[in-house]
Amino acid sequence: MSSSNPERASAKGLARHFEGWQVGAILIGVALVSGLLAIPRAVSPGPLPLPQLSNADLRDDLREERSLARAARDEGLSFETRTVGEYLRKLGNAEHASNGTPAPGLADRLEDVRASVAGLRRAQGQTADRELMRLRAVQGELFVRALRGHGPAEDVGQLGGAFDNAPAHRPWFDGKRFVGDDVEALLLFKARWNRITNLDGVAEFALRPSEWLALVRFLLQHPEGSDPAAQAQSQLATLDALSKRQPEYPLAFAKGTVFYREGAYDVAAMAFQQHLETHPSGPWALRARNHLLAARERAQGTR
To answer: Long-range contacts: 117-120, Cβ < 8 Å, 24+?
Structure first.
């Protein structure tokens, strides 16, 4: 025969008021942590915000590029187009020999390239543009293969110029290994090819939006420049170009990050403050407040 236990009964009665207390404690804990995270604290900036791009669009663009290269191999190129290709290789050789610095004869080599391109386009019109796009595509493939050690080593210099030995390109390499992927190597090649042929202002040759954004992402992470100051200037120029195409990009926040890394803490603080005035809330607001505090602390410490 069981006997009743008043103390146990009382405890059991009280326990019902605490049913599910574990979940409640977790929710309270989460609320407390969220509140703490929302309190600004001095934190140094991390990586730069990177622009978003469509990987599907990029794949489509690269598929078209491969199709152009295949057509160049299967159908061949005209004598005039191959002559342009030879001028490009001669210029590349000269640039590589000079390590990307000004040297006698470079201007003449560049003029040879541009004159041959202009002459071809005057003579053949749209046919010339199709041929030149095929030339660029097949040369791009050859360049990337050589860069990865799967083609003649001289193709890197002949097709890429001072790509691998210019002091300003040191951030692109870890020792002798290119730090980017094959797509980024190809996009760097295309941008240079467009510039030296003077076709970067022609719509048909311009990098597609997804290609351009992929290139910008690489240049923000691995800016050109032989020293930190030059690299910072390169990043700032890239950020200005990006903001013109993507007005929603957090430009002031990104510039504040660059200035902070360069030790320009007063300027960094102004940039983070500008971001907060324009975007008092949003995905970068709390970080901007944290970085603003850090910049102000550093600025006071250097006075």
So the answer is: 117/84, 117/197, 117/198, 117/199, 118/198, 119/80, 120/80, 120/81, 120/84
Neighbouring C-beta atoms of residue 183, cutoff 10 Å: 18
> How many CB atoms within 10 Å of residue 175?
5
Q: What are the helix (H) ranges across the chain?
A: 6-15, 21-37, 55-75, 79-97, 106-124, 126-147, 154-160, 182-197, 209-221, 228-245, 251-261, 265-278, 285-301
CA distance 86 to 92: 10
Dig out the tokens for 151 from the structure. 């083609």
- Do residues 82 and 252 lie in contact, with contact meaning Cβ atoms separated by under 8 Å? no
Q: pLDDT tens digits, residue range 239-275?
A: 999 999 999 999 999 999 999 999 999 999 999 999 9
Entry pTM: 0.85
Span 116-151, pLDDT tens digits: 999 999 999 989 999 999 999 999 999 999 999 999
What distance in Å separates the CA atoms of residue 239 and residue 50, rounded to the nearest whole number? 10
Q: Helix, strand or coil for residue 178?
A: strand
